[in-house]
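Good morning C.,

I know you're traveling, so I'll keep this short. The sequence:
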Amino acid sequence: MSGSGFAYPHLFGSKVSPPAPPWTGHPKYNFIGGHNDPTLVPVEALIEATQTVLRRDGQSLALYSLAQGPQGYPPCRQFVADKLKRWRGIDSNGDGVLITSGSGQGIDLVNQVLLEPGDTVILEEFTYGGYLTKLKRLGVNIVGAPLDEDGIRIDALETILADLKKNGTTPKYICTIPTIQNPTGSIMPLARRHELLALAKKYGVPIFEDECYADLTWGGMNAPPALYALDPEHVIHIGSFSKTLAPALRLGYALAAPEFLGRMTAIKSQTESGTGALEQMVVAEYFSRHFANHVGKLTRQLEEKLDTMIEAVEREFGTAAEPWRPKGGIFLWLKLPERVDTMKLVQPALKAGIAFNPGPEWACGGADSKSRLRLCFALPSKEIIREGVAAFARVCFEETGIPEQSGNIRHARAGN
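The tokens, ready to paste straight into the viewer:
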């Protein structure tokens, strides 16, 4: 091996990523990622829960998966089932839950069960960037379905499905985030959920439902039932504790029809030795006692931060920015004037200590995403939000001449 590094770069796989740069920390104004409010991590309560479960079950850590099977720690699975039954209308028990290493693993497992290169999937036109990265790496064809303020437009989706059928293509799934859509923050109404399920069934396409943000709705957990609750035979459901407790715990869950869940479990067992057991034990202990109170406090704080961010955008950008006010979650989706290319703002913003997600990284394609961007308001304090939005406005003005003047913005509806 030479002194310059690894001696066999010609052995690297054709799809391997370039080397990661050295980690230099987050910028001062960090508006990216799914981070949450560090002041609301219940540290003392988690310490107490950890002590409790270690005293009670700590010796089980000597065994892979606590010798309780590959689906996960039974009390954690039962908590998930109880939570989903109470707030998402899902009638299941712990046996129907698979604990995953974050929702990212859930996505990977669904894709491994269903997808091969050349397959087609339907995603929402604006969606989680992680889906796009994973699917492109798999060589899958992605079709974007238009959105409005209520989620996927059923008329547009039917046209897409009909056109694909004419070409002899049946998509492997329709992926949707119906409750606090990422990045727009919409909630799909009940009537549209039924329409979506009927349409998917008509064309023989399963639905892949991601509810990572469903617990974080403003004013309480009162969204319509999950799609899985309405049709468990044709829906694959995933969720996460990353947004409700702590993303560093890497803990999520999946539900699906028994045959499908069994295949996910088999693949998980073949590729790892189990999701971290201590995390499952602590989450089950803490959330079985404090879930509603914790989530209520968290959502109140998040909505206050959202208000702070929108006020800052109004003050700094005036009518040059149009936000889609979310109905929950941790993101604000913005549209700048058409001539702005947010991809060209990324590096100037980083030089000013600002990180944000440009629209094209969260879109299936099309020019409509070029002027859009996503800001996470959960992590920074209100003071940092105000400072960061002001700093970003200065960068935008220096690079584009926008905003030209301040004033009151209108709250644009999704799809406008």
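Safe travels,
E.
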